[in-house]
Every structure is written in structure tokens, then in C-alpha cells.
Design a protein that fits this description.
By secondary structure, the protein is α/β, with parallel strands linked by helices. It folds into two domains: 182 residues, Vaccinia Virus protein VP39 (Rossmann fold, 3-Layer(aba) Sandwich); 69 residues, Helicase, Ruva Protein, domain 3 (Orthogonal Bundle), CATH 1.10.8.100. It is 40% helix and 18% strand. It has 13 helices and nine strands. The strands form two sheets. The protein has a seven-stranded mixed sheet, sandwiched between helices. A two-stranded antiparallel ribbon has the order 1-8. Strand 5, helix 5 and strand 6 form a beta-alpha-beta unit. Helix 5 packs parallel to helix 7 and helix 8 packs across helix 12. The longest helix has 15 residues. It is elongated. 38% of the residues are buried.
């Protein structure tokens, strides 16, 4: 890294210390044939370790000064791309064959990045896994089980398309500057979606609806989802063999899949979009 470069708060920069980079690289476990996409390489402390063990690395960096500095220091099997990862087109890389992802994700945009990766995994079997550093609180949400306070929408949508495992915990001192919170390394091993596309249009709004009201019983939390289609929430829960007095966070993924199938069989339809959304859609098409 350039001696004059200071971590930029607006980019959420906390750079991994070299000693910890060795441990993270070992946890990622690059193989000689691997193609790796690295999100946010920063000064390249992890990049060089991945490049030494993998076939190639594409590193996407938003900070133009860091990107320029890295281009002069990385080995030939590393390509530096200056871009915002949330705007970065993954399809050309995925079209080239199996791809693994690694990265030290900025805390302020970790969730959008995770949702982008989950969406990419739904579109291509070539996305193999993602091993990323996250704020510990977010990591615990990814791996939470039913009945815990951390279990929620992110847990469920992740479980539909990936198996999540926490590999290690990193103290604040593993980074420069040190953040005020602990971090963790989590691996998402992508898999075929457990919810087919024709049911996901029901599954997604159903899950979001009930977890917006997680303190209510399911019989009450589901009403806003069921009643616009003329359906009875309690009857649907009964048909799915789920007690209506249970709370949303007690439902395992299989419970949610069963309930989705019941609503599909009963003919649930999406309610019309609010007038403002319809106007925006017409404007976007114009």
C-alpha cells in the first residue's frame, strides 16, 4: 500500500493485518485450479496470498488510489478492477467456469453484497462458494437456528441457496484501523435453490411479512399476507400442520416451505402494487 494512503471511513476500510491474512487464506483454502473473485482487496495483503495458491484472482476495488497501487505490485495472475462491487457485472466471470469468492466486506454494505451473491448463485451453478469477513453480529445471523434472536429473513434467504458455516472469529486487533466490534469469517457453500422459482414469488413476501411482525403469533402475523387473496391465515397454517400460536422465529425452513406450498395450492396472488410503485414502473419503462 502507498505509504501516504490512509484508510477511508466513507469506504468502510479496515485492512487485514498480515498475520491474520495467513489464517484467513488457510481458511479459504485456495486450490491450484481455482478462479477467485476477491471483493475489496484493499492493500492486497490477502490478494497476494490467494494468488500464490490459485490459478487466477480478479480483485474488485472501489478506491481508485488503492486499485492503482495494486496494479503495480500484484503477480501476473491477478487482475485489478476498479469498480463498485454492487454495480459489478458478475456474468462474464461466471460464464468462464467455476468461481469462488473471497473478501473482507465493508460493514456498511455487507448485507447488499450477500444478497447479490445469493442472487448470482440462483442464476449460475458456477458460483461455488464465498468465504468472507463480516461483522460478528451479521455472521451470527447467517448461521442462526430457529428459535434464536438472530434467526430471521437473512438467515432464511441464505439457507435457501447456501449452507453457511462460521470458520473463525477475528478480534478488532486483526485489522488496521481496529474496528469497534469483533468480526468473523463465514463460508457460504452455494447449492441448488430449495425453493423453485414458481414458489419463490410466494415464499419471499410471506417470509418478509411474518418477520416484520415477529413478536406476534403466526395466526396474526400472516393475516396481512393471506387476506388480500381472500385466504384465511389460520386455515393455511393448520393445513401446513403448524400451530397458529407459534412465533415466526420458531419456524424451520421446512415449515416455511410447507406453508408456501399450501398458499400456492390455495391460489395466493400478489396484491396490486401501490399507485406510487405503478407510476415509477411506467416512468422507468418510458
Amino acid at each position: 500500500m502507498s505509504p501516504g494512503h490512509r484508510p477511508r471511513k466513507r469506504f468502510g476500510q479496515h485492512f487485514l493485518a498480515p498475520g491474520w491474512a495467513d489464517r484467513v487464506a488457510a481458511a479459504i483454502g485456495p486450490r491450484p485450479a481455482d478462479r477467485i473473485l476477491e471483493i475489496g482487496p484493499g492493500p492486497g495483503v490477502l490478494t497476494t496470498r490467494l494468488a500464490a495458491r490459485a490459478a487466477s484472482v480478479v480483485a474488485v476495488e472501489l478506491d481508485r488510489d488503492l486499485a492503482a497501487d495494486l496494479r503495480g505490485r500484484v503477480p501476473p495472475n491477478v487482475a485489478i478492477v476498479e469498480a463498485d462491487f454492487l454495480q459489478f457485472d458478475l456474468q462474464p466471470l461466471l460464464a468462464g467456469g467455476p468461481l469462488r469468492v473471497a473478501g473482507n466486506l465493508p460493514y456498511n454494505i455487507s448485507s447488499p453484497i450477500l444478497f447479490k451473491l445469493l442472487g448470482a448463485a440462483a442464476m449460475s451453478r458456477n458460483l461455488i462458494d464465498a468465504t468472507v469477513m463480516l461483522q460478528l453480529e451479521l455472521a451470527e445471523r447467517l448461521v442462526a437456528g430457529p428459535g434464536s434472536k438472530d434467526y430471521g429473513v437473512l438467515t432464511i434467504f441464505t439457507a435457501v441457496r447456501a449452507d453457511a458455516a462460521r470458520l473463525m472469529t477475528l478480534p478488532p486487533g486483526a485489522f488496521r484501523p481496529a474496528p469497534k466490534v469483533q468480526s468473523a469469517v463465514v463460508r457460504l457453500a452455494f447449492k441448488p435453490a430449495l425453493v423453485p422459482p414458481e414458489l419463490f414469488r410466494i415464499f419471499e413476501p410471506m417470509v418478509r411479512t411474518i418477520f416484520m411482525q415477529r413478536r406476534k403469533t403466526l395466526g396474526n402475523a400472516l393475516r396481512a399476507f393471506a387476506e388480500p387473496s381472500g385466504l384465511d391465515a389460520v386455515a393455511a397454517l393448520t393445513d401446513a400442520r403448524i400451530d397458529p400460536v407459534r412465533r415466526p422465529e420458531t419456524l424451520a425452513l421446512q415449515d416455511l416451505l410447507a406453508l408456501t406450498s399450501v398458499f400456492a395450492a390455495k391460489g395466493w396472488v400478489a396484491p396490486p402494487a401501490p399507485a406510487t410503485q405503478r407510476r415509477n414502473a411506467r416512468r422507468d419503462r418510458a
